[in-house]
Automatic annotation (TrEMBL):
GO terms for molecular function: endopeptidase activity; tripeptidyl-peptidase activity. This is Peptidase S53 activation domain-containing protein. SMART domains: Pro-kuma_activ (SM00944). It holds the Pfam family Pro-kuma_activ. It comes from Zooxanthella nutricula. GO terms for biological process: proteolysis. Residues 88-232 form the Peptidase S53 activation domain. It comes from the Eukaryota.
Length: 407
């Protein structure tokens, strides 16, 4: 059908459709579109009916769909319905069945929770203007919030325990790796596996599910998906090396002690340190309580000297206030509790020779000696990175933001 509404758009041999005729044609097109949509729906309904109700009603639906779609009902066995499940570049190997004893890997994805909340939290902790900027969740916290419910895990576990196969949950319990023979998989998941022909890669399986997976309603209700096309040999998850935190001395000095792992980025360095009081003990008071308020004069500020070359030094005064310095529980050994502080110093060039020294100024006007520059070993990541990357690289729990001079 050729529709045109103006003589400029129409070929000379066609009359333009105008006025009531245009409305009539538009109505006819709407009806035709509806019929085609109904045909597609009825065809899908027929496919589901074959699985659930048997072929009788399905034949009626297919015939009705053929009339609505202006075509004919497909003949039985026409086309290769298995190709829809094949990997691109593969084709069915003449309907060859899979070897019944060969192991197949099935991955079940359990339904996760609180995804909208976690997405919003990820946006907020990445916004420097947000009050919770930098307060990232740990992996364990994310798993506890996003992971499936205990009831869902119990349903899947009970379902798989009744099979001869083996299974293992992921750390977050949202994925299950199930291994069983071909005959077992076909029975458990109500499908048929056929061999596919094509180029394979190490770890690929040449078998594909030829029919839709069928699961009990209680199991399907707690799953987001099932993959029968997973590699036979899934690579083991690399172990995450958790670096032990630096243990600060509990006493025996007055100069503040810097963590030897200097955090460095684009034009800034991040420092972590513990303050010591005049009696040589590590400070146990928070910034709000007053640094060293329990042992004589309080510390009112810290003086940091950034060393890069004899002619390139930077001196920064850090007031001992929560607006400038971060504060958290430190590690001063099993018998010594202390407070660990963190601060960022900006305007620092990216030199691998960078190190730092620090000293404390007390409320009585006296100052401690500077810390030893050799106590710090700078480590340089790429030119610029994010708080999340710093946390991952250095094992820093970002319960409070690392203050960047740009923010």
């Amino acid at each position: 059908v050729w529709l045109c509404s103006s003589r400029r758009q129409c070929p000379p041999s066609f009359r333009p459709v105008e006025g009531p005729q245009l409305r009539l044609v538009a109505q006819a097109a709407t009806v035709l579109t509806a019929l085609r949509g109904a045909a597609a729906f009825l065809t899908a309904a027929a496919a589901m009916t074959v699985r659930r109700r048997g072929p009788g009603l399905a034949a009626v639906l297919v015939a009705t769909a053929a009339v609505a779609g202006g075509g004919s009902a497909p003949a039985a066995g026409a086309g290769d319905r298995f190709d829809a499940f094949a990997q691109p570049g593969w084709r069915a190997d003449n309907g060859a069945a899979a070897a019944p004893d060969e192991d197949i890997v099935v991955v079940l994805a359990l339904r996760q929770r609180n995804l909208e909340f976690l997405e919003e939290h990820a946006r907020r902790v990445s916004d420097p203007d947000d009050p919770i900027y930098g307060q990232h969740f740990t992996r364990e916290e994310v798993n506890s919030m996003a992971g499936p419910s205990d009831e869902a895990v119990d349903v899947v576990r009970g379902f798989l325990e009744a099979t001869p196969g083996s299974f293992r949950f992921s750390k977050g319990r949202d994925l299950v790796r199930f291994v069983c023979g071909v005959a077992c998989v076909e029975k458990v998941f109500g499908t048929r596996l056929l061999a596919q022909r094509g180029a394979t890669k190490p770890g690929d399986t040449k078998y594909r599910a030829a029919t839709p997976v069928r699961l009990p309603d209680r199991v399907a209700a707690v799953l987001d998906g099932v993959s029968l096309n997973a590699p036979l040999f899934m690579p083991p998850r690399p172990k995450q090396v958790k670096l032990p935190g630096f243990e600060f001395p509990a006493s025996g000095r007055v100069a503040p002690r810097l963590d030897p792992r200097l955090i460095a980025g684009d034009q800034f360095i991040g420092l972590r340190f513990v303050a010591y009081c005049k009696d040589g003990s590590a400070n146990t008071k928070s910034l709000e309580e007053g640094v060293c308020a329990h042992a004589g004069p309080r510390i009112v500020s810290f003086e940091v000297v950034v060393l890069q070359a004899p002619m390139n030094q930077k001196v920064v005064i850090l007031p001992a206030t929560a607006e400038v310095i971060g504060d958290r529980v430190g590690n001063c050994g099993p018998d010594g509790g202390c407070r660990e502080f963190n601060a960022s110093v900006g305007g620092v060039q990216n030199f691998a020779s960078t190190t730092a020294r620090i000293r404390a100024k007390f409320s009585d006007g006296s100052v401690s000696n500077f810390s030893d520059a050799a106590e710090v070993h700078p480590v340089w990541p790429q030119a610029y990175t994010t708080p999340a990357s710093l946390s991952r690289f250095y094992g820093i729990p970002l319960n409070k933001p690392i203050r960047h001079p740009r923010n």
